[in-house]
Design a protein that fits this description.
α1 crosses α15 and α3 crosses α6. The chain has four domains: 209 residues, 2-Layer Sandwich (Cytochrome Bc1 Complex, Chain A, domain 1); 196 residues, Metalloenzyme, LuxS/M16 peptidase-like (Cytochrome Bc1 Complex, Chain A, domain 1, 2-Layer Sandwich); 203 residues, 2-Layer Sandwich (Cytochrome Bc1 Complex, Chain A, domain 1); 200 residues, Metalloenzyme, LuxS/M16 peptidase-like (Cytochrome Bc1 Complex, Chain A, domain 1). It is globular, with a radius of gyration of 27 Å. The strands form four sheets. The chain has a six-stranded mixed beta sheet with strand order 1-2-6-3-5-4, sandwiched between helices. It has a six-stranded mixed beta sheet with strand order 9-10-8-11-7-12, sandwiched between helices. The protein has 35 helices and 24 strands. By secondary structure, it is of the alpha+beta class.
């Protein structure tokens, strides 16, 4: 869906190339408004400053917060060959200092003001965005305006070299060190000719990044970063007239510059198929991707192609699913998507096959599915389902204030008006059967494509026949290879301005106001807890049933997960396809899932359809289909997913670390969803037995948030009135004691470009009164990029893309985890930093740390109740951990009264580095021997499952 795709792309947390936002070249003819467009509008005011900056203002006083988004019309499509990746690199550079804002203030100050901030770059643009409590609004104006107009004079060689290391670490983490990471590079090089704006990836080539100079940075800034090439959106609890005055003060003096010339569409064609392959060091399963050239964004065909992708691959009625999964049993979940960008577009069919499957067979299966679609097409019900889902998605795409700021900014910059949000959804709703079949035959069916095969490096026999080796350059990580850098104060002449550009003060701090919670109990014992909020005409709910993996039978871990998945596969009176269609016709989402301690049936829907969706939920829960064939398919898919995870270093690290902390006899010691051996042992009878024993209203709670009164929620919940059962007590998990001295463990992933590091120990259940104290005490160690781990490992050293520490919430003893993915050749140095920062945390934690942490947490609470999901999470925490309804206010009270002595006690008691274990997942050939210098003995070498090797 174009609407959602735009939002997802703009929410990139400094990511690149993952999604593509909309762009304006050709606009479809106006169509009748959809129900969503006619029922809800986003009011805004837009105007342009004398220097060319377009400003969009939107008032939303539902929460005491303000969001800002600055969209700059420059992405990787504006780069020059030999300087690829520069738009994304410049985004990183822009988060440093400027003439009037000190170095590091952007990354540190906004979180410390209780806000969040980030940026993203895609093929066609760059966006910067923040959300803060409204008392920090003036500071946000100061920071953002200085970045746009006054940052280039402060750029120095040391900052340039540091950000090079950060971006290269990001590339290693997201491309070089994970399965199929090079796919985008391979496809782009084959699909787009040399010199085309999409011939390279958004992250670019490492050699180009390393070659970047200060002159390149200045040239890029002067060419693209000016007001006339940007849109500023301010949304939230604002006064229009006051905001206009503030915008003029802070942004009005920025030099106008020359606007960038618009890019004309540059669609491409293929004369014949291009078949390429890559032997992937990390992949454990073969994958084939077909990519077809299409059209630029906002043409009529773009909307039809988006619908086509959904019809081909979304759900059990889709032809790719029926052919490749059900009939041929070659893959677990094929998918397709349309990407239409500013100057060109593409359509992708992506199939990760089962283990050892020949991709020739998968390719033939795709062609069989396309033949079927050409002959039989699709039903009216399938197309109607897409449109119903789109209506619901419209509301969720503007749920938060930041959502609205991002949408308005992107539509204004790329579609010519913030109001295009309504036209976009109308165009989506106007897609017809003829449109879909026309674009299918014009762009996809029997048309040339780029066919890329990525297979495990030791299985070249699986590639599509006739494929040529893809041009992939693997980086070699060599000790001492990266240049050292030193950041020094920069001497420059400050740009004269009429207005004082020193840091503005805070305004009055908004007060915390918790929402009202209501409760009810049904006759069968099921608890109902809810919050009524009418800002949007939608409802989110989650029915949680205690149990989950906690109650799996011995030796058959994964039973709860398979049982939950089986509840999604039809009912006694509906096939899986019929159930999916019934949910889709409501424009809803409804599914059952399992985690370590619960089974959860969750959904979202327009409020007017909530009773109908609850009828379907009751049918799913109380009348399972228990189809043997579906069980066998789900079991096979689960085994495939387990195999897939064996090539993911981050997943390996997470699973092995948990096993080291908890062992085999604890619910957290075994991977969620089980192991190959445990899943193979599960039968359909095991799943039925679990259902009969565990699925009971006596241990269930229905959590509901949205635009319904308590009486309406309870009335709809009566669909579950016939549900009966007995309560079951979750057995106590084995107590876990901390180690008496640190031990280092190592898992070898040959030729890894990064090392995944985990450090930690077990502490307390999340229900313990001290749990929140530990969480708060951790804030300045690893609670975000402004904390010590991120500041040291990323900002000061350039070793990583990110480093954090955290405590997951659970009913058993949760782990304290400090983690990062670092460049391979600084593994030892990074471990030493973890050791130092954690070991010396208590002696170095001073009053100013406590003051900053208090400010961050108290102010961040102003954003705690903004979205339906945040409210739903709060309700689930209340029931899961038996918390008071005002627990967030109680936590704020703890923060306000916390003393330095109390925080020191918590750190000493629970975060003792000498009771922690260390785990490294990386390249043993180059790093294992070095790690002995950490001082904790010879590392214990494990396999990828956590078993000791030698």
């Amino acid at each position: 869906m174009k609407l959602q795709k735009a939002l997802i792309a703009s929410l990139l947390l400094t990511l690149w190339g993952c999604s593509e936002p909309p762009t304006p070249q050709q606009t479809a003819q106006p169509q009748p408004a959809s129900p969503a467009a006619s029922e809800l509008r986003v009011d805004y005011e837009t105007y342009t400053l004398e220097n060319g900056l377009t400003v969009v203002l939107h008032v939303d006083k539902s929460d005491p917060i303000v969001a800002m988004a600055t969209v700059v019309h420059v992405g990787s499509n504006r780069e020059k060959p030999g300087r690829t990746g520069f738009a994304h690199f410049f985004e990183h550079m822009s988060f440093n200092d400027s003439e009037n804002v000190p170095k590091g203030a952007n990354r540190k100050m906004i979180p410390e003001l209780g806000g969040t901030r980030n940026g993203g770059t895609w093929s066609d643009g760059t966006i910067y965005y923040e959300v803060v409590p409204k008392d920090a609004f003036d500071k946000l104006l100061w920071i953002d305006s200085d970045r746009l107009g006054y940052m280039i004079n402060t750029v120095d060689q040391g900052t340039l070299e540091r950000e090079k290391q950060v971006v290269k670490n990001e590339k290693r983490q997201r491309v070089d060190n994970r399965p199929y990471g090079h796919m985008d590079h391979v496809v782009r090089k084959a699909l787009y000719p040399q010199g085309h704006p999409y011939n390279w990836t958004v992250i670019g080539d490492l050699a180009d990044l390393q070659a970047a100079t200060l002159d390149d940075v200045r040239e890029f800034y002067n060419q693209f970063y000016m007001p006339s090439n940007a849109t500023l959106v301010i949304a939230g609890d604002i006064d229009i007239q006051q905001t206009k005055q503030k915008v003029e003060r802070w942004f009005g003096e920025i030099k106008a510059g020359e606007p960038s010339a618009p890019l004309e569409p540059q669609p491409v064609t293929l004369e014949a198929d291009k078949k390429l392959y890559h032997l992937d060091n990390f992949a454990k399963l073969p994958l084939v991707r077909l990519t077809y050239p299409t059209v630029e964004q906002y043409s009529k065909d773009a909307y039809a192609l988006d619908a086509l992708a959904r019809l081909l691959s979304n759900g059990k009625n889709a032809v790719l699913y029926k052919t490749l999964v059900e009939e041929l049993k070659l893959a677990p979940s094929p998918n397709a998507w349309s990407s239409t960008d500013e100057v060109a577009g593409s359509f992708t069919i992506n199939v990760q096959a089962n283990a050892d499957v020949q991709l020739d067979n998968v390719y033939a299966g795709i062609q069989q599915a396309l033949d079927d679609f050409a002959k039989n097409g699709f039903t009216d019900a399938q197309l109607q389902t897409i449109k119903a889902e789109q209506e619901t998605a419209f509301y969720y795409s503007i749920e938060s204030i930041l959502d609205k700021a991002l949408q308005l900014g992107i539509y204004n910059e790329y579609a010519g008006s913030p109001g295009f949000i309504e036209q976009d959804i109308a165009n989506i709703s106007a897609v017809t059967r003829d449109d879909v079949m026309r674009v299918f035959k014009q762009y996809i069916y029997q048309q040339p494509a780029v066919i890329a095969s990525f297979v495990p490096k030791d299985q070249p026999e699986l590639i599509v026949t006739g494929s040529a080796k893809a041009p992939v350059v693997e980086e070699e990580i060599v000790p001492g290879q990266e240049p050292e850098f030193e950041e020094k104060p920069v001497e420059y002449t400050k740009t004269p301005t009429q207005h004082d550009r020193s840091e503005p003060p805070l305004s009055e701090l908004p007060t915390l106001s918790t929402p009202d919670i209501w409760r009810n109990t049904l006759a069968n014992g099921m608890e109902v807890i809810g919050i009524t909020t009418t800002e949007l005409p939608v409802v989110n709910f989650a029915l949680t049933i205690d149990g989950g993996q906690w109650l799996d039978p011995a030796g058959k871990t994964g039973t709860a997960l398979l049982m939950a998945q089986m509840l999604n596969e039809g009912t006694a009176t509906k096939t899986p396809q019929e159930l999916e269609q019934a949910i889709g016709q409501l424009g809803a989402q409804l599914s059952v899932a399992a985690n370590r301690d619960a089974i959860t049936l969750s959904g979202r829907v327009l409020a007017r359809h909530y009773p109908a969706l609850m009828e379907l939920a009751a049918e799913m829960l109380l009348a399972p289909r228990w189809d043997e064939n579906e069980f066998n398919r789900l079991k096979s898919t689960r085994l495939t997913r387990i195999k897939q995870s064996e090539g993911n270093a981050a997943r390996i690290a997470s699973n092995v670390f948990s096993h080291l902390l908890y062992g085999d006899n604890h619910v957290a010691g075994v991977p969620m969803g089980g192991t190959k051996e445990s899943v193979e042992a599960i039968t359909l009878d095991d799943v039925k037995a679990y259902y009969d024993e565990v699925i009971s209203p006596k241990q269930a709670t229905l959590h509901v948030v949205g635009a319904l009164a308590p009486e309406a929620v309870t009335a709809a919940a009566n669909a579950l009135s016939q549900w009966q059962g007995s309560a079951i007590t979750l057995p106590a998990q084995p107590a876990v004691t901390a180690v008496t001295q640190p031990t280092v463990y190592f898992v070898d992933v040959p030729d890894a470009k990064q090392s995944v590091i985990y450090v930690g120990k077990t502490v307390l259940p999340a229900s313990d009164p001290d749990f929140y104290a530990i969480d708060f005490a951790n804030e300045r160690l690893g609670g975000g990029m402004s904390a010590r781990l991120g500041q040291t490992l990323r900002i000061q050293k350039g070793y990583t893309y990110g480093a954090y520490s955290y405590l997951p919430e659970a009913r058993y003893q949760v782990p304290f985890i400090a983690a990062s993915q670092v460049r391979t050749n600084v593994t030892l140095e990074s471990l030493q930093i973890f050791k130092e920062l954690i070991g010396q945390y208590q002696p170095t934690y001073q009053q100013d740390d406590l003051d900053v942490a208090k400010n961050m947490v108290i102010k961040a609470n102003s954003r705690r109740f903004e979205t339906l999901n945040s409210l739903l999470d709060m309700l689930q925490n209340i029931s899961r951990f038996d918390l008071a309804e005002d627990y967030i206010a109680q936590q704020q009270g703890f923060v306000q009264s916390a003393t330095l002595e109390e925080i020191h006690r918590v750190i000493n008691t629970y975060l003792n580095e000498q009771q922690m274990i260390y785990l490294v997942v990386g390249d043993a050939a180059t790093q294992l021997e070095r790690i002995e210098k950490l001082g904790y003995g010879k590392p214990v070498v494990l396999d990828i499952y956590g078993n000791k090797l030698h």
